Amino acid sequence: MTTVLHRQGNPLAWTQYGRSVIAPIPPSPTPWLPFDMPNRSVLAASGKYVLAHYFPTFPVAIGSGDYWTKWMPPGEVEGSTDHRVYGGYVRDRKPNDTDRTGNFDRRMKLAECIAARDAGLDGFTLEMVSITSGNSFRTRCENLLGAVEDMGDPTFRVIPMPDGNTAATSSAVSLGDYLATIASRSSIFRNASGRMLLTAFGPEKAPNKVGTGGSAAATFWQQVLARLSTLGHPTDFMPCYVNSWTATAQAPSFDSISWGHSRWGDRDPANNANETNNNRNAPAYCRATFGKKWMHWASPQDVRPYSGSWWEAHGSRALHEAFRAAIDGGADFIQIPTWDDFSESAFICPTVDSGNTWLDLVSYYTTWFKMGAAPTIMRDAIYLFHRKHLTTGATFTSAFQTEFHDPVSGGTSAKNDIEARVFLTEDADVEILIDGVVQGGAQACTAGMTSVTRPLAEGVVSARIVRDAVTVASVTSPHEVNQTQLVQDFVYRGVSSLRS
Asked: Beta strands 333-336 and 49-54: pairing type?
């Protein structure tokens, strides 16, 4: 039996992941999930791939201290940037690991790789913002490649993703030269042909954020691919557009050099469910128009304190609608933006406030996408989501925050709801409570997966599943809702009944 590094049981703390533990992959059953995840070899043989976007700005640890304290509310001054004016750079964080011995960044990235692999993911798309030797971002990227190799699972790999908005794309020759240095590594994703697969964030922005798409930007990437081929590394290209992917300056201009197409995507349920070629119909449109592979998106939420912009995810509904679009449309790949971009609150990795909630939910949809049918529900479960305060009427006590969120972006209006995404083995009643009082009565639900919402209000939030007058599952959120907070915080927290 193949053995690789594997996390044991039902851990949350990063320090419990993978440390010199060898075990079969994956364990079965999976009691922390509402279904039993298929064997890794079965998932890997599906021919469909789910990868999370890895953002190297937010490693588990930086230096000897706890660097995250500079970013967390109320924020600190970091160089010339005063994070205090918007209440802090981030609203949640990766669990701290105080062990700074050896190459701790690579070791901690190994823990992240194991967590992602055990959730059913096939790897990461790795954002590259610098290719300069000695640059900390390049070092972190190479540590991730090393961590994947340390894990030793050939079904978990990395797709390089140079960022068209950054200096990584200043020179096509330099970028091609750098990519050639990593192209032969065992951690790199290859197609069935053996060719490296390359994507790019905002390819239309290259070189270095000055591009406007069209033939000029496409020529830049053609030069990168030509350089790689000259150096002995023929490469397949699947650009990930930030602007409207169907517009002339994007896919039509890039199609002749592309193996597939992708879009960074939307962040709210209404837009994700739109029956347009830019949204839900994208997989079918890509096949019909270009005859190419399609990589869809599925993101949990997007809240950006540093810029004031945010999109209404409505609990887990933005993630649900995006995954359903990919599943129903027959996408070939799914990219999850992101694994760990905490500046945009678009993370699925384990965190201090939400634990493994987002990642566990992703496991369900990933299995559905790969296996072609919704997994059989083996255990009643509740995934409970809510904010810490309402979007209106709250008071903030930080003396430094002077910048607050703009009106909501996207196609979904601001919501003030509690959501319970429930998984039922049989029909049952679902109740959402505040301070122990049932809100709006019980809701009768049929077996399978469903979403129940009730208005958000101050107090302790909980939920339960009741069947034949017996509570069969329950969960209480550790985040009490209070209209007086240190800083403004529109990020949804999640908690799972199977991990609490």
From this structure: parallel
How far, in Å, CA of 456 to CA of 498, rounded? 23
Specify whether the CB–CB gap between 202 and 241 falls below 8 A. yes
- My answer on whether 161 and 306 are in the same domain is yes
Backbone dihedral angles phi then psi of residue 245, each to the nearest 5 degrees = -70, -25
Q: What is the CATH number of the domain that holds 344?
A: 3.20.20.80
Task: Please tell me whether residue 246 adopts helix, strand or coil conformation.
Answer: coil
Range of the domain at 43: 3-371
Into how many domains does the chain fold? 2
Rounded-to-integer distance, Cα 154 and Cα 221, Å: 28
Return the sign of the alpha-carbon dihedral for residues 56, 59, 64, 67: positive
Classified as helix, coil or strand, 299 is coil
User: Residue 394 half-sphere exposure, CB side, CA atoms within 13 Å?
Assistant: 25
Same domain flag for 329 and 401: no
Going 431 to 433 to 438 to 439, the CA torsion angle's sign is negative
Q: In a 10 Å sphere around its CB, with 0-12 CB exposed, 13-18 middle and 19+ buried, how is residue 186 labelled? A: exposed
What b/e sequence results for 445-463 when a residue is b if at least 16 CB atoms lie within 10 Å of its CB, and e otherwise?
Answer: beeebebbbbebbeeebbb
How high is the pLDDT of residue 28? 63
Residue ranges of the chain with pLDDT lower than 50?
1-24, 27
pLDDT at residue 492 in the model: 98
pLDDT value at residue 208? 84
How are strands ordered across the β-sheet holding 493-496? 448-455, 417-424, 381-386, 493-496
pTM for the structure as a whole: 0.94
Judge if 133 and 100 occupy the same domain: yes
249-254: Cβ within 8 A, 24+ apart: 249/204, 249/212, 249/213, 249/214, 249/217, 250/204, 250/213, 251/286, 251/290, 253/213, 253/214, 253/215, 253/217, 253/218, 254/203, 254/217, 254/218, 254/221
Which of 332, 319, 429 minimizes the C-alpha distance to 382? 429
Rounded distance between C-alpha atoms, residue 458 and residue 78, angstroms: 34
- Looking at 371, 395, 423, which one is the last position of a domain? 371
Same domain for 276 and 297?
yes
> What is the chain's length?
500
In this structure, are residues 319 and 365 in contact, taking their beta carbons and an 8 Å threshold?
Answer: yes
pLDDT of res. 11: 35
